[in-house]
């Protein structure tokens, strides 16, 4: 399980990094945390001509910034930094909760938010939470910078809207509701999700919810928003019947795989039950406390 | 032959200058090129955690790092733990708790626990269990490993 | 023997003491020596090209591009290997089975995905893997069969048409009495088909070999990660057409074996062949993707089990016909055989019949794995015991008690011929019931306020440990005996060097052997140095498997230590000018006169005297060394009972194991800490196999679906339930010190206890489980089925 021959490039700036990506004409891959990329190299499922190691670009890509309503997270911010960041705790509590479900200690010490989003694993926690929170992906190439709404980013299993010469430089999160929940079920601790659910929203003083977003992982070839379910909950108080209806509506967003973790049938069975439980819990509880 | 990349790494407190192929795993570099065979390789997929070392003080899996990435960084392996004679306190705790059998995973647990102990965090037994999930063991059933780390970090106490 | 034990039981670090392990310091410091740590100068590296299909004919192999790659030293293909080697022998063949010879590389036809087809040696592993990619192999995929029962259907493709007319390798019936007639007359019969999952032992250290050939010396040195260095030596010599004297196998530390590292694999033969050709050391370490396809799998079987009973629940007959999956061809050791011998468990059954059928499928060969058939059959029998109880309205605890052999019934021979040695089976079960507070749990009912249902699952079992003599083995075609051996050699520092062919793989044999040596001889535990696993330095032995090492080695160590001690005392008596050795004993580092501590001679002085032959009695030969062999008369049967308490969510099938209690007996415990360690470790593997581990093959492509660490679900530190261990300690009458084996027992109870607990929790729905692993999805499916059953009138 040794990688095929490759070149190793270690740029000192983002400008150098995008130059290197351009130079290799789309055959290079960006090496950030390496937690998914390096095994794929060893299995030779991926054979880039070069690796562009961005780990020296912490000054440009390693920051967490709260700017007004927006929170900007650099691509190279590692999970362990998100886990302990007071800015994230205050502004994106769902993100912080979700990070604790990713991998194990060693993986969280090394893995990066940019790497996870670029990897676009349909069961991945980070793509799911970015989708649920409505982040925008910032990508840069020699041709300049563009911003991609997350809803348009994931294009399939491990596929996304990034061009091969583009570097994902960061994510911009809008103001997030403090009422949120995350649920995940795998086959063992640290496993990929066979089902994951992220919910965020804000109740007003009368208990009417707004800004409801429900993200689902493991039930389609990308993380998906359960839009019909969210629409049913939007602007309403959540009684038992409403929650039950919404939970069933979530199935509209699901087209789950049959694989070694679970059958499609079982995922379809679990989804409304677990979403119902998550929503019930959220409806009756305090805002997320970390 | 493949192009070699020059790297300077501080390994267990000593600076080393070496030339490495771009595709070489850091674990293979430590074992094959530096002879530090205490770091083991069990899956090369980042799952089993045998190859855990400290990179700039943090526990990482060295099969998920390429050797050139080590340039300019500090690495600590299991060989750095013990004094010349005898065992370090964490190692002694493992011995007294019978926290190892075949010993192949042990360096991974020791390095993970070393970083954990240095973090200064307050850790319950369940927290420790969670923090150790990145290293697999097929011999012990883990309980004695958790006990050893718990005793090392929290001191002797009656287990609940 | 037991008298000696009782007299000196208090010896520090002797038998029964919780001695700290001799193995630990080197392993903790990173100074273990695993095979991949062996790094000779000028070593070359091997990589293997493997068949990607479950069944395929090889039409053509083109190595020309690979041969030209810089760094490639040699490429071997099947035709050349078949010419230059003998087939790899099977250490424990299936009785009555025809031989299915296989070579290290596939010939014309591959019979499983992962079978070695080409081997390449190059200057680095990476380059060798580059070369494998450049080798062009033209395969003609053939019809394949994956399912063990479908393999026996008339229209199944036959894997070995030259030797067999079907995929049935052999049928082995055993039994006693007239079970068919008794079953037909029974008041009630419960029966079902139970499917056992294919799993793998997954040692953390992959297999590895470093081979080196010195042609002038005709000496092949092979460092191999194996449980059986002396047997590997035999198999390598046979396959490579060398004399055994030409081959030295060295096994230092082994990073877990669990039955998977029993004997020579194809890659071992290939590395040696390359080393002989190239006259340079050749190294191969299995990577984890190879491991999942090329190292033996285990357990997969289908059991058709039936129990007949009278109206009081007394068992009148048991029958079990089961089919085990051998995979595509033989493994170096052979597939699990112990489902038959313990099929009736700890119950009194006079009329019983058991029959093993061994089938071939296009999957990775199946070999030995911790438990070796015993967890499988225990699952089938114990689930039926609970169903019998439910059908008769008898509590499962009571039903077991009613049928369980009493202490005074033993020794007792079961219908398969097993001779149960001793033990109080009922006490163990009662201790389990007391520990979980069985009556109170029952009284509390099944329903929880949160909607979950609570259940208790019991299981009771016996476990064969060790072998019933070399004669027994030889009658079944085994290529090894039942003995262990040891050499003890006094050294001039006053210590003893202990030489054993038992390699260290986590079972703590270095520590246990030293404890026994110290116990019998009297020398301090710390003064004993264990040297293990080098066939050039250790007496010929059998090896570390079948929970047999200690059973046999305790006798060998004890005999050798007695001989060494007696000679030491005679020399001491001579030097102290005493008439005989009465009143002398070894105490730590010296021989002392009992009652007169001032009269002592250091062992260092006595050892030196013996070694140079000065100052010893005239009728003594110089030298102080003893070798002993020991073969126990019978196997010893460990036993126990376990209970699981689970809470099941009937909506999702999720369940939590809230408690797991095991009471077990492994006879006299040489070291209670190590015993607990072995039991806990095997339990963890038992939980893995019961709850999550399963190697799955795609029905259409026949390929392994989840052959990687990411998709094969072994428990982490956060995946195991709380475990409570208790033990009884009834000595076995058949073994030295009364020991029984302990390494495998934990694999047996989890599956049965958990499944019974889930079924108990869902008894209102009449849920039945008949397969492993027990996953939330399975529980949900069985609930659906039960509901459908109840809705269909």
What does this structure look like?
The complex is a heterotrimer of chains A (290), B (160) and C (793). With 290 residues, chain A is of the alpha+beta class. Chain A has helices at 14-23, 37-42, 58-61, 79-84, 86-91, 93-99, 105-110, 113-119, 125-132, 227-233, 240-249, 264-283; strands spanning 7-9, 28-31, 50-53, 64-67, 70-74, 136-141, 144-149, 154-156, 159-160, 167-173, 179-185, 195-203, 209-217, 224-225. In chain A, helix 6 runs antiparallel to helix 9 and helix 10 packs antiparallel against helix 11 (240-249). The mean pLDDT of chain A is 96. With 160 residues, chain B is α+β, with helices and mostly antiparallel strands. In chain B, 30% of the residues lie in helices and 17% in strands. Chain B is elongated, with a radius of gyration of 16 Å. Chain B starts with a strand and ends in a 6-residue tail after the last helix. In chain C, helix 15 runs parallel beside helix 16 (549-575). In chain C, the strands form seven sheets. A seven-stranded mixed sheet of chain C has the order 3-5-1-12-9-10-11. Among the domains of chain C are: 2-32 and 483-630, Aldehyde Oxidoreductase, domain 4 (2-Layer Sandwich); 395-469 and 635-791, Aldehyde oxidase/xanthine dehydrogenase, molybdopterin binding domain (Aldehyde Oxidoreductase, domain 4, 2-Layer Sandwich), CATH 3.30.365.10. The A-C interface holds A 1-5, 43-44, 104, 187-192, 259-263, 266, 269-270, 273-274 and C 124-126, 129-130, 133, 287-289, 651-652, 692, 696, 705-706, 710-711, 713-719, 775, 777, 780-781.
């Amino acid at each position: 399980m040794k990688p095929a021959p490759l070149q190793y490039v270690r740029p000192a700036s983002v400008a150098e990094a995008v130059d290197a990506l351009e130079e290799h004409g789309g055959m290079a891959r960006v090496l950030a945390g390496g937690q998914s990329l390096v095994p794929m190299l060893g299995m030779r499922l991926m054979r880039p001509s070069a690796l562009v190691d961005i780990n020296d670009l912490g000054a440009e890509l390693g920051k967490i910034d709260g700017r007004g309503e927006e929170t900007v997270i650099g691509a190279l911010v590692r999970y362990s930094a998100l886990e302990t960041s007071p800015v994230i705790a205050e502004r994106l509590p769902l993100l912080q909760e979700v990070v604790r479900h990713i991998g194990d200690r060693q993986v969280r010490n090394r893995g990066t938010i940019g790497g996870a989003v670029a990897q676009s694993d349909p069961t991945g926690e980070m793509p799911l939470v970015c989708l649920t929170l409505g982040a925008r992906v910032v990508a840069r190439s020699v041709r300049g910078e563009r911003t991609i709404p997350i809803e348009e980013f994931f294009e399939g299993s491990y596929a996304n809207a990034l061009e091969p010469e583009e570097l994902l430089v960061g994510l911009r999160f809008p103001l997030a509701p403090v009422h949120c929940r995350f649920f995940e079920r795998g086959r063992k601790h640290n496993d990929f999700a066979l089902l994951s659910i992220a919910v965020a929203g804000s109740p007003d003083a009368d208990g009417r919810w707004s800004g409801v977003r429900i993200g689902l992982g493991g039930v389609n070839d990308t993380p998906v928003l359960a839009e019909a379910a969210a629409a049913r909950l939007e602007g309403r108080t959540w009684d038992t019947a409403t929650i039950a209806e919404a939970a069933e509506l979530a199935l509209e967003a699901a087209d789950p795989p049959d694989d070694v973790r679970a059958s499609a049938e079982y995922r379809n069975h679990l989804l409304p039950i677990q979403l119902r439980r998550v929503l019930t819990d959220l409806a009756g509880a305090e805002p997320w406390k970390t | 032959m493949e192009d070699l990349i020059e790297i300077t790494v501080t390994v267990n407190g000593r600076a080393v200058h070496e030339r490495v192929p771009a595709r070489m795993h850091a674990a293979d570099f430590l074992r094959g090129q530096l002879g530090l065979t205490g770091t083991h390789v069990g899956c090369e997929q980042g799952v089993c955690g045998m190859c855990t070392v400290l990179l700039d003080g943090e526990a990482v899996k060295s099969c998920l790092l390429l050797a050139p990435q080590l340039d300019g960084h500090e690495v600590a392996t299991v060989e750095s733990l013990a004094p010349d004679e005898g065992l370090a306190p964490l190692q002694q705790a493992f011995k007294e708790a019978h926290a190892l059998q075949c010993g192949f995973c042990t360096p991974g647990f020791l390095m993970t626990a070393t970083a954990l102990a240095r973090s200064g965090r307050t850790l319950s037994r369940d927290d420790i269990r969670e923090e150790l999930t990145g290293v697999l063991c097929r011999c012990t059933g883990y309980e004695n490993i958790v006990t050893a780390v718990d005793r090392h970090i929290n001191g002797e106490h009656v287990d609940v | 023997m037991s008298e000696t034990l009782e007299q000196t039981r208090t010896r520090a670090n002797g038998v029964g003491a919780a001695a700290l392990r001799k193995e630990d310091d080197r392993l903790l410091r990173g100074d273990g020596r695993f095979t991949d740590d062996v790094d000779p100068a000028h070593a070359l590296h091997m990589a293997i090209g493997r068949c990607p299909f479950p069944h395929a004919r090889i039409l053509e192999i083109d190595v020309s591009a690979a041969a030209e790659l810089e760094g490639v030293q040699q490429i071997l293909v099947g035709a050349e290997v078949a010419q230059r080697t003998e087939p790899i022998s099977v250490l424990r063949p299936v009785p009555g089975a025809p031989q299915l010879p296989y070579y290290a590389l596939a010939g014309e036809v591959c019979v499983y995905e992962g079978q070695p087809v080409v081997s390449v040696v190059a200057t680095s592993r990476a380059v060798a893997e580059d070369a494998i990619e450049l080798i062009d192999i033209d395969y003609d995929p053939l019809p394949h069969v994956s399912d063990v029962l479908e393999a026996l259907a008339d229209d199944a493709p036959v894997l070995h048409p030259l030797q067999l007319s079907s995929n049935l390798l052999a049928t082995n019936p055993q039994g006693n009495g007239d079970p068919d007639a008794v079953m037909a007359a029974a008041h009630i019969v419960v029966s079902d088909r139970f499917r056992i999952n294919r799993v793998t032992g997954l040692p953390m250290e992959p297999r590895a070999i470093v081979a080196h050939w010195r042609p002038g010396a005709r000496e092949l040195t092979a460092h191999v990660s194996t449980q059986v260095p002396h047997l590997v030596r035999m198999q390598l010599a046979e396959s490579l057409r060398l004399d055994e004297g030409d081959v030295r196998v060295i096994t230092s530390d082994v990073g877990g074996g669990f039955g998977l590292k029993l004997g020579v694999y194809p890659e071992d033969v290939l590395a040696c062949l390359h080393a002989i050709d190239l006259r340079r050391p050749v190294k191969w370490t299995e990577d984890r993707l190879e491991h999942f396809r090329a190292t033996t799998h285990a357990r997969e079987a289908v059991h058709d089990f039936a129990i007949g009973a009278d109206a009081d629940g007394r068992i009148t007959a048991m029958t079990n016909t089961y089919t085990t999956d051998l995979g595509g061809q033989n493994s170096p050791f052979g597939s699990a055989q112990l489902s038959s011998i313990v099929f009736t468990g700890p119950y009194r059954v006079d009329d019983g019949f058991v029959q093993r059928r061994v089938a071939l499928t296009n999957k990775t060969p199946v070999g030995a794995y911790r438990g070796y058939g015993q967890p499988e059959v225990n699952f089938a029998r114990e689930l039926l015991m609970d169903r019998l109880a439910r059908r008769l309205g008898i509590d499962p605890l009571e039903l077991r008690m009613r049928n369980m052999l009493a202490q005074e019934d033993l020794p007792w021979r079961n219908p398969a011929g097993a001779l149960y040695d001793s033990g109080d089976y009922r006490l163990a079960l009662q201790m389990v019931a007391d520990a979980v507070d069985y009556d109170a749990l029952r009284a509390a009912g099944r329903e929880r306020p949160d909607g979950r249902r609570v259940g208790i699952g019991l299981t009771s079992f016996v476990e064969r440990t060790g072998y019933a003599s070399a004669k027994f083995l030889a009658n079944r075609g085994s290529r090894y005996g039942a003995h262990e051996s040891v050499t003890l050699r006094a050294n001039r520092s006053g210590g003893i060097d202990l030489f054993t062919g038992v390699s260290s793989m986590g079972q703590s044999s270095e520590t246990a052997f030293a404890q026994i040596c110290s116990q019998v001889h009297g020398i301090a535990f710390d003064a004993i140095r264990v040297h293990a696993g080098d066939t050039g330095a250790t007496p010929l032995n059998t090896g570390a498997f079948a929970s047999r090492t200690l059973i046999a080695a305790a006798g060998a160590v004890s005999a050798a230590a007695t001989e060494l001690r007696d000679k030491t005392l005679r020399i001491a008596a001579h030097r102290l000018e005493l008439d005989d050795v009465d009143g002398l004993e070894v105490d730590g580092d010296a021989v002392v006169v009992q009652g007169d501590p001032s009269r002592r001679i250091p062992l260092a002085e006595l050892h030196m005297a013996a070694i140079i032959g000065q100052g010893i009695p005239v009728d003594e030969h110089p030298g102080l060394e003893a070798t002993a062999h020991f073969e126990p008369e019978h196997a010893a049967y460990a036993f126990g009972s376990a209970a699981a308490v689970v809470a099941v969510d009937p909506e999702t099938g999720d369940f939590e194991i809230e408690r797991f209690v095991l009471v077990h007996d492994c006879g006299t415990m040489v070291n209670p800490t190590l015993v607990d360690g072995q039991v806990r470790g095997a339990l963890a593997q038992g939980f893995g196999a019961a709850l999550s581990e399963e190697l799955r093959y795609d029905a259409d492509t026949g390929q392994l679906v989840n052959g990687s660490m990411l998709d094969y679900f072994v428990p982490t530190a956060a995946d195991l339930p709380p475990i409570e261990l208790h033990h009884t300690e009834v000595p076995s009458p058949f073994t030295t010190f009364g020991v029984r084996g302990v390494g495998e027992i934990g694999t047996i109870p989890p599956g049965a206890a958990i499944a019974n607990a889930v079924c108990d929790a869902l008894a209102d729905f009449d849920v039945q489980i008949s397969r492993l692993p027990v996953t939330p999805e399975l529980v949900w499916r069985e609930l659906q089925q039960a509901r459908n059953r109840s809705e269909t009138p």
